Please model this.
Amino acid sequence: MSAAPHAASGPSAPLKSGPGMRLTLALFLTPVVLWLGLLIVLPHLDLLIMSFRMDPAFGDEGWSLENYHQFFAEPIYWLTFVRTAGYSVLVTLLTFLVSLPVAFYVTKVVARNTSRFLLTMLLLPFWVSELVRVYGWMILLRESGVLNHWLMALGITGAPVEMLYNDATMIMGLVYTSMLFMVVPLVSVLESLDDSLIEAACDLGAGPWTIMRTIVVPHCMPGIVSGGIVVFMLTLGNYLTPNLMGGKNSLWFTEQIYNQFIASFNWNQGAAFGFLLLALSSCIIWLGLRLTGQKLSRVVQ
Amino acid sequence: MIRSLPRSRGYTMGYGLYVTLYFVFLFAPLAVTCVLAFNDSQFPSLPWKGFTLDWFLADLPARTGIFHDRGNLSSIFTSAQTAILVSVLATLVGTCAAFLFEQEEFPLKGALYFLMLAPLVVPGVILGISILIAATTAGTFTEDVLGIDVGILRPGFWLVVLGQFSFITTFVTLVVSARLKKFDRTLEEAALNLGATRLEVIRYITLPFLRTAIIGAGAVAFLMSFENFNTTLFLVGSEPTLPINLYLQVRDGSTPVINAISFLLIVGTSLVACVNLYAGRKTEAS
Model:
């Protein structure tokens, strides 16, 4: 009954294995392996296999690179892909630039009790569904929207201006949707930055810009990387914001995937697109981790 | 520069202005959505025509408030059902995973841990299509080989539950693991020395220690599931969840009923979030 690890184990050494230990290991391992095996590994393998096969309706059922060939042959496909990737990088950068001053203000500049309150306020919209937030922007910005109503009431514009459905608005919407995922990790790394380092730098004659560049940003690197990864991934995989706020010409790659699956019903082509998107996001995340010398398991903490 | 250092007036004012603008930017869409839910107009736009609760309560041909809107009510119900099931499942498996990665030793642990983190970096759309493809493959297989038609494997309620569960469990695992890391394992050793079995230790010592973290993770899982769009989009069948249903309505035009639903969502999630933050702070303090 008692598998007492009496003699050897120090306070933090792992408990010795006994029959009870084996049982609990099996108890914990089984659901986790089922979850990861059936819902993560198998589906992605199936996605990969499907992307190398032809749709039975379009010809023979053998292995083929046709789906990938299609991607490079049709400019609309790979142009959308490149655009989506480029805009995602841009959105990640903009989000960082917008969020850093706010995170710094909340953690370092305001009085401590105000800081707590501001932090809660920063987090609140993060809980509200993305759809509601995008909808809010739509009723603000569209031709019959609130902003146009005010602009006309103030006499700034004579006729309503359509502010929705263009790339700039779409990028603004993407930054808005993702900035909270940047602020939170930044706040948590900034909280661990000792104020006296900044004070010392200031005493030694460094200006705000030098302090930012040589002390704050290097210290924040783990937070910047983890925020950057989350923001990049969410932007790349976003469907709602580009679909509802972008124009006819601002097609996002996820919309191509959706079209293949739901409209054209060509799942093999869609699988190839999905795999390309997955490969792109994995590559950029890997690159980001590599360039800054971080580990994924540390970044997600 | 910071609160302990002297600052120039221009710096303080400029910085304050920037942060104020940021907060306006942050809350403007939410505030406008909420306010227009009470406007006595057929469209969610200005001018202000007076206060009304019609978009919540009315049951007229021209105006159907949310509490009489059959389609939206049933999608809210579907979303709630999904979210309850997903949060229970994710909390169970996520807690198992936290124990597994924090307290057990086994071969290939590093690889399995990496796999557990994978859903964080896989875009939701990809997760949705791969689960859709795998379920269809499995469905075709059972039908062709075994001759059984498994309804669960077709797009619909259960596939949505599985799809959301597959990535929400990772979040639960991380939250519960973070708390489990702070657990003093000498307590366990003491209990084992006193004759408790491993399962008794978990039941009477470790789980009570984890209770608030598990409840918090469950609440987050509920919200994530309730609001999920990307993964659900591909797995949904004839019963849309609320975000999907709202998306279809927003795409085709808008009525203040959407504002009314948004208002309820904003108030509801803020309440859950506040309770969660408050509970989390209390745990940290103790």
In short: The mean pLDDT of chain B is 85. Residues 71-253 of chain B form a domain with the MetI-like fold fold (CATH 1.10.3720.10).
